């Protein structure tokens, strides 16, 4: 068992980082296929050739492993085009960001399944997912407020901004789901139509 | 065991219908809480006080039971305001229809979870859910085409109609999910904003 050897003579820092990345990659696959509730730490450990204790050592708990997976998803999403854009440009970049998920089907499947599963307050990931939505809605609201303050769009009340960022989030979640169900779905064209329509409604230029 | 009695002396037709409705109600609760993959026929049978064979007798299979549950959901949705509306009025009624889901949280949770789970082609409900999306998109497209032909909105190409009905579906799915995650979400206001904006973009009157 490679596990025993690793536990006895823990490698240098870089080895630990690589092992952690490998475990996150396997967890993505397993959660992506079975969901968070259905994907067990035992399956992940078996596929990685490590034991349960190693997973706990790296991530603390199943929720900790999910957090690491979703952080990796966020990192890739930001790398896919949301660095150095703000205000209206942030919204204009969203069709590309969504289209890039086509290269990460497993991750999109994972996130879509977990968000839906965790809509039940009894789900162990409920607090985590609700916090994540709150945080993402706040990010979108910040960019919209910035566009208002820059004079790029008309004034929007806090209640209007809330509606706008929820609709953007709904369009992205919903189009992601439709693309998962039918890979012929033109996610880029749909999100572009939505972005242009929203910016026009805001009197954007 | 009430089960044995029922099997020996099957009641009149009305009793069978009531029993079927009762089983569907319990299946809704169990699938709503555990998802389709996680909700077992055994749990449903136990909660209903019947045995596995009775479930199979009524529904044929787990997929058959899910079909019955989703048909019941469709029936309630239509009763909630989509009878006798067509063309643009169909779209104008959607905020109310979505808002009515607030009274059926379990069903919305069930549908949202199953649609996400079944996005994986390996899921036993995948074919069923993709067929259901195809059918619902066609219904929306029919109403939009009707509005075009009535001269209520500008001409839309088939490709544009496809984008429009996918965006409507995304907004409804996505806003449903956000309301499940945060019951403070004003689903009626958000969907109303979307409907009015879309109709304005179509040059609707």
Short account of what is shown:
The structure is a homodimer of 205-residue chains. Chain A has helices at 2-8, 13-38, 41-48, 52-59, 62-79, 88-92, 94-100, 105-117, 126-149, 158-181, 187-201.
Describe the protein's architecture and organization.
Chains A, B: This is AcrR family transcriptional regulator. Chain A is an all-alpha fold and about 200 residues long. Chain A has helices at about 1-10, 15-40, 40-50, 50-60, 60-80, 90, 95-100, 105-115, 125-150, 160-180, 185-200. Chain A folds into two domains: about 1-80, Arc Repressor Mutant, subunit A; about 85-205, Orthogonal Bundle (Tetracycline Repressor, domain 2), CATH 1.10.357. The first copy, chain A, contains eleven helices and no strands. The longest helix of chain A is centred in the first third of the chain and has 26 residues, at about 15-40. The N and C termini of chain A lie far apart (about 60 Å). Residues about 1-10 of chain A have low confidence and may be disordered. Chains A and B meet through helix 2, helix 8, helix 9, helix 10 and helix 11 of A and helix 2, helix 8, helix 9, helix 10 and helix 11 of B.
Order of helices and strands of chain A: HHHHHHHHHHH
**Within the CATH hierarchy, at the fold level, what is the topology of the largest domain in chain A?**
Tetracycline Repressor, domain 2
For the termini of chain A, the CA-CA separation is 62 Å
Q: From the structure provided, what is the oligomeric state, counting identical versus distinct chains?
A: homodimer
Report the CATH architecture of the largest domain in chain A.
Orthogonal Bundle
How many domains would you count in the coordinates of chain A?
2
Strand tally of chain A: 0
| SS-derived structural category of chain A | mainly alpha
Low-confidence stretches of chain A: 1-8
The percentage helix of chain A is over 70%
CATH class of the largest domain in chain A: Mainly Alpha
Overall form of chain A: elongated
Share of residues in strands of chain A = under 5%
- Please give the largest β-sheet of chain A: none
The Cα radius of gyration of chain A reads 20 Å
> Helical region count of chain A?
11
Largest interface by residue count?
Answer: A-B, 48 and 48 residues
Average pLDDT over all residues of chain A: 87
């Amino acid at each position: 068992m490679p596990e025993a050897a690793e536990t006895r003579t823990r490698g240098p820092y870089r080895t630990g980082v690589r092992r952690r990345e490998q475990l996150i990659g396997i967890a993505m696959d397993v959660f992506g296929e079975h969901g968070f509730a259905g994907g067990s730490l035992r399956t992940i450990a078996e596929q990685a050739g490590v034991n349960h204790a190693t997973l706990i050592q790296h991530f603390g708990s199943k929720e900790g492993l999910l957090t690491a997976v979703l952080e990796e998803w966020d990192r890739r999403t930001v790398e896919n085009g949301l660095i150095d854009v703000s205000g209206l440009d942030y919204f204009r970049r969203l069709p590309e960001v969504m289209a890039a998920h086509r290269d990460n089907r497993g991750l999109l499947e994972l996130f879509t399944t977990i968000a839906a599963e965790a809509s039940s307050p009894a789900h162990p990931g409920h607090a985590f997912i609700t916090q994540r939505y709150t945080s993402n809605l706040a990010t979108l609201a910040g960019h919209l407020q910035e566009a208002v303050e820059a004079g790029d769009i008309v004034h929007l009340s806090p209640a209007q901004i809330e509606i706008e960022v929820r609709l953007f989030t709904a369009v992205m979640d919903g189009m992601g789901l439709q693309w998962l169900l039918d890979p012929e779905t033109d996610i880029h064209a749909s999100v572009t139509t939505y972005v242009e329509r929203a910016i026009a409604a805001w009197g954007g230029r």
